[in-house]
Task: inverse folding
């Protein structure tokens, strides 16, 4: 413990006495951690993170194509459709719709006519949150939701939550729907994740490029951090020789060198973490669902660069402490 | 105390082998003050580095207090070094980022001396060398003579049986040089074995005997 305190004190003092080098070393590390945390937060938020539902992989959307059925409209409807038809004409509106049309008094209980002057009036029975209909970046649009039974559409989507994988779910869904009406046609069954991936395609592409750049940035950060720390260790070769001439064992010297490296790394992690979180907040304004304080991303990036610092301390440190003290002492 | 038999050191060169030391045989008794002299490139500092176990790449037999250094692994040599040897360098080799106090503390910390005990020993040493007022200064804030004084204090702080001094006055002016030699002589009188390397005839005379080296050979004693 005593030795550890001395190593830390010595490392901090060395940093204090060489401020320019310390700023470069800490800055390199901070830049690496900050930039990589921000980039990988985007990649994680757009590409890797699951949809915000329980068991998102179990959600599937089935596209029912009623238009292929034959016979008059009434005959093309299923029993559930028929039940919906019996209800009073109603509608749900989106928050954006409500705020545009009835900015002061709210939408609930209001009446609207949807589908032209001949259409019947409907009562607004609820307002729902705005949704992204096509792509993630689109502005909130006004939406009116009608009952399928009251506003017939030949093609529709059914969302189901399943407990098994897609391979089992698709035939089971098909069988269930055919059991209701053998003339129904199930166009496709896809997981909700695949379905929504189209909506985030631009972000997905951007994140794909960003992830490539991120890996490149991580590699460059690693090389930069390695170079800076290894230079710092190499410059201590003479000191290593003096210490070994005074009785230091190799292990003790290596602990001191690694301690110095960690001493450089810790401020880098703090500043880099803060920079990464700051950049994340900036990016969050145009990337939904991005968490700028994602601890896993920050931890993985920091751990990766700390590992680089450790290697950059250990490899030249081992080389320097392996030579005879008389050789190390000649180093300028 | 020290027995050297056929100590040789050489470097491989393009054409063959260049010898720095050739068949060096000698004995040093406990309590002696030995001076090694010779022209530049004679092998004086190399011999001192071998004696101080700062250099392990040589051939021959070296016994220190009867222990065969030539047969030891590096770790065992470090332990033997810590037990018996203090080294004074021409360029002082103080650690620039440590204060005078901390420089003196270093050899003790590598010998696992407890903190309280270290404080007492370093305090005594600062008193003895009359550098209490400089204990919080860094080497760069000291004159050459003061730095070498600290280096000598560091070399003897763990009470070694032998001090090896490689041109300890080489970077000092004459009055400072004499002060350092007086100090080494005083330590020798107190029982410490001293082996010094020097070019200076006046300082060489502080020793009980002089070993003359030339081109790696002992030519006179």
Result:
């Amino acid at each position: 413990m005593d030795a550890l305190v001395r190593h830390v004190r010595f490392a901090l003092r060395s940093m204090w006495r060489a401020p320019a080098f310390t700023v470069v070393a800490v800055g390199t590390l901070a830049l690496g951690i900050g930039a990589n945390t921000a980039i990988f937060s985007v990649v994680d938020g757009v590409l890797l993170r699951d949809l915000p539902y329980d068991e998102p992989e179990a959600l599937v959307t089935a596209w029912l194509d009623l238009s292929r059925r034959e016979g008059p409209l009434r005959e093309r409807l299923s029993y559930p459709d028929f039940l919906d038809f019996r209800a009073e004409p109603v509608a749900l509106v989106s928050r954006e719709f409500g705020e545009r049309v009835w900015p002061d008094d709210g939408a609930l209980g209001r009446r609207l006519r949807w589908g032209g002057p001949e259409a019947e009036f409907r009562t607004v029975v609820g307002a729902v949150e705005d949704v992204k209909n096509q792509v993630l970046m689109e502005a909130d649009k006004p939406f009116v939701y009608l009952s399928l039974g009251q506003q017939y559409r030949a093609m529709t989507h059914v969302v189901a939550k399943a407990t098994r994988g897609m391979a089992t779910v698709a035939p089971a869904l098909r069988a269930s729907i055919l059991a209701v009406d053998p003339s129904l046609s199930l166009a496709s069954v896809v997981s909700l994740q695949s379905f929504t991936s189209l909506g985030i395609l631009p972000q997905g592409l951007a994140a794909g490029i960003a992830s490539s750049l991120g890996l490149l940035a991580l590699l460059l950060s690693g090389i930069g951090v390695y170079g800076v720390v290894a230079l710092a260790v190499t410059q201590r070769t003479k000191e290593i020789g003096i210490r070994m001439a005074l009785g230091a064992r190799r292990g003790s010297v290596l602990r001191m060198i690694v301690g110095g490296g960690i001493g450089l790394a810790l401020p880098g992690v703090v500043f880099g973490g803060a920079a990464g979180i700051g950049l994340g907040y900036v990016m969050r304004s145009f990337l939904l669902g991005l968490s700028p304080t994602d601890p896993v991303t920050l931890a993985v990036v920091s751990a990766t660069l700390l590992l680089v610092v450790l290697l950059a301390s250990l490899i030249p440190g081992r080389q320097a402490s392996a030579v005879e003290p008389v050789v190390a002492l000649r180093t300028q | 105390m020290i027995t050297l038999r056929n100590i040789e050191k050489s470097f491989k060169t393009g054409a063959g082998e260049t010898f720095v030391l050739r068949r060096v045989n000698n004995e040093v008794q406990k309590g002696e003050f030995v001076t090694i002299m010779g022209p530049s490139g004679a092998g004086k500092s190399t011999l001192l580095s071998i004696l101080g176990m700062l250099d392990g790449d040589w051939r021959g037999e070296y016994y220190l207090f009867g222990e065969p250094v030539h047969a030891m692994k590096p770790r065992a040599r470090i332990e033997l070094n810590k037990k018996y040897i203090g080294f004074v360098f021409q360029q002082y080799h103080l650690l620039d980022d440590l204060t005078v106090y901390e420089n003196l503390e270093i050899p003790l910390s590598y010998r696992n001396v407890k903190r309280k005990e270290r404080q007492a020993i370093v305090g005594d040493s600062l008193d003895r060398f009359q550098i209490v007022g400089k204990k919080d200064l860094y080497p760069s804030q000291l004159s050459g003579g003061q730095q070498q004084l600290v280096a000598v204090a560091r070399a003897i702080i763990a009470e070694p049986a032998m001090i090896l001094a490689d041109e300890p006055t080489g970077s000092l002016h004459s009055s400072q040089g004499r002060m350092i030699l007086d100090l080494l002589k005083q330590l020798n009188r107190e029982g410490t074995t001293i082996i010094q390397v020097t070019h200076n005839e006046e300082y060489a005379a502080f020793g009980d005997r002089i070993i003359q080296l030339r081109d790696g050979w002992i030519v006179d004693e």
